[in-house]
Amino acid sequence: MSKPVESLSEAELYEISVLEEKLRSCVGAKAGPFLAWDSVNRAMIRHWCEAMGDKNPVYSDPAVAAPMGAPAGAVIAPPTMMQAWTMTGFGAQHPPGSDMREQNPAMPYLKEYGYLAVVATDCEQEYMLPICEGDDINSRSTIESVSGRKTTALGVGYFVTQLTEYRNQHDEVVGTMRFRILKYTPAVPL
Q1: Which of 9, 52, 70, 179 has the fewest CB neighbours in a 10 Å radius?
Q2: How do the domains of the chain map onto residue ranges?
Q3: What is the mean pLDDT of residues 56-77?
């Protein structure tokens, strides 16, 4: 249904209204917690820093990390790693004890109605507390908004905004991430 609204039939307009009602029902939907497979550890921090070319000693030297809030003998993880600890990886599985429901309930509806392509449009992260070696991170997400049908240069689709909150083992919020995607039908078939 990548045609302009004015050229849609009544049946197509009805189908869009049904989809949009389903999408509106997703706003406010919460999921989680999604646990991490591993505690925050120096090996993963080192790999991340090597890949990013980040030589900040707070990520490798406990003596430098201690005044920044790290426990004795521990280092701090780069804040931009926040999402990495609870991601599923290629197997698309969260570890046992995690919420096993769909993390973004709008996605199955959009797929059902033929919006199969996806592109990340923007991401905003906010960091509250340092994530330290030994921490156990988990995440919880909320669907903040779903736009109405939009026509973009990529095609026709919907913007979905998800807010994820990251917590440590003490249930303290270490940061948040607002992530927006466009789920669409390409203007030019893939």
Answers
A1: 9
A2: 5-40+77-186
A3: 96
